[in-house]
Specification:
2 domains; 4 helices; globular; alpha+beta; single chain; four-stranded antiparallel beta sheet
Length: 134
Amino acid sequence: NRALDGELWALSGSRAWFGPEPFDALLEQRLAAFDIAPSDPLWGRGPCPAGTACAQLEHAAIAEYPDIAGGLDAAGLEHARRALRLDLRGMSWHWHGDAALELGFTLPAGAYATAVVQELLDDAAAQAALGDAA
């Protein structure tokens, strides 16, 4: 939820993205209003369009997987971006006994419920591990 130098911004509810451009008060307002989100690469052909610190981070991450990067390039995939956060709305939950949890929420276009559930499970596992360490 914060800008890196050279950040590329995903426009909420679409596949559009823009940047890099200097982080200013207008971008800060748009970020707070969930109009834009920091983005991450969907690796493919062409140069990484991110600037400076953001590009360095992305190149370091993909450098750990040269075969995957090469395969995506060889398959002809074009570089694209995906938002790194979701504007989750209307969250509700209900326990059915001790073993079943029903979740309800609304997501913007292009978002996946499985990503939300995975984050919830990862967070629960991390909290359980912290509790075990205490």
